[in-house]
Amino acid sequence: MSNYKQMNKTKSGFRQVLMLAGMLLTFGWAQAQAPRELTLKEALNFALQANRDARTARLDVENAQYQIDEVRSRALPQINGSASLTHNPLLQQSALPNIFGANPNPNETILIAFGQKWNANAGVSLSQALFDKSVFTGLKAAKTTQEFYRVNAQLTEENVIESVATAYYQLLVQRQQVGVLDSTIKNTRRVQDVLTGLFESGLAKKIDVDRIKVNLSNLTSQRQQLLNGVTLMENQLKFLIGMPIQTPITIPDVARDAIQPQAVAVNDAVNLDTRTELQLLRRQEELLGYQKEAYKSEYYPSLSLGGNYSYQGISNKMPVFKGKEKGANWFDVAAVSLNLRIPIFNGGATKARLKQADVSIRKLQEDINNTGLALNLAHENAKTQINNSLITLNTQRENVDLAEEVYANTQNNYNNGLASLTDLLNAETSLTEANNNYSQALLNYRVAEIQLIKSRGQLKSLLN
């Protein structure tokens, strides 16, 4: 009996453990599936950390330091060790006149082998550059390369910010259009309920009930299409910021009245020196200058100090681990040298490379001038687009107010039998179109605003 009670108690405890585990798993799943609210600032900061292009640009900056270390190594001592063991089964013979021995005969040629069959050698060599202009030029070029990659990383981040901000606003407007359609569907269903009641009372026609039903079905289908578009835009945004596609996100609503568009003064100017595009081209110009200087260094002599030391052993038997008593002779050799290399003539190759470098610099200067013109053009276009978008926004806002007033009056007239169902549906469609047009105008303004901020070199202000 006691065993039976103990078994029941054990089963009960096991059941409680399973229930607790199930609750924890359910809670964890719910937490994992909870949508992450993503503001523009959060999306931009996430992108700068996770976006593939931004990460790659930072790796280039890190790699530039290693390039500097590589060039610097050329100015440091170069030390190498070596060892060899050579066996000569057949020694090289030399032809000599027979002037040796007891009966010399100079007219006779004899063959004599010189050397030992085994030769062991172990040594170390050192080389130190005392003067090499190409080394110092390369070191300065490497430091400029590091600055080039740093500016390039900054430009990459700005491009990421521009792409993410544009995609974010497109998604936000698409969500607002869904909200507009939801409001329209809600109003349509209210009219449908009223019309159905009137039809059941014999005060409305069946064709009117069918028409409102068809209209509601079309609106529902249109809403589903918008939702599909929202999903695609969410996936695109997550891809741009480097977030896993499976991560659910939600974009907080922004009241349309919270956006306060501002006009831009016609005489608003921009300081091109702050633009990253020009800074990057100027770093590239410096690099081309160092490349030209490196070519010039080919005309300069180079001076280096060299030294080597080796310990050798020779014998007719393998000399390793053997001394003189076993027929192995060991001796050391050392040398110190001062080496001067003076270039005299290379067929004009250096002169040709200098001319090519000069052409590359002049081509880049043309790119810098053209980029300056393009940046000024982009700024002027952004100002024009902002001001035009402002006019469109004001017009669309007035259209929304007017469409809401027309819809309210038409609905009231329809309820009082003074307007037809067609008039009501037309007023409803006009109101939906006016709201969508206003949302699109807001998107155009936001995109123009991003371009204006970019033209001023202030894209990172969006992170604040």
From TrEMBL:
Superkingdom in the source lineage: Bacteria
GO molecular function, one term: porin activity
Subcellular localization(s) per the UniProt record: Cell outer membrane
UniProt keyword terms in alphabetical order: Cell outer membrane, Membrane, Signal, Transmembrane, Transmembrane beta strand, Transport
InterPro entries reported in the protein's UniProt record: OMP_efflux (IPR003423), TolC-like (IPR051906)
SUPFAM superfamilies linked to this entry: Outer membrane efflux proteins (OEP)
A cellular component annotation (GO) from this entry: cell outer membrane
Subcellular location, principal: membrane
Annotated signal sequence range: 1-32
One Pfam family per UniProt: OEP
Protein family according to the UniProt entry: Belongs to the outer membrane factor (OMF) (TC 1.B.17) family.
Matches recorded under PANTHER family: OUTER MEMBRANE PROTEIN TOLC
Name of the featured protein: Outer membrane protein TolC
Lineage: Bacteria, Pseudomonadati, Bacteroidota, Chitinophagia, Chitinophagales
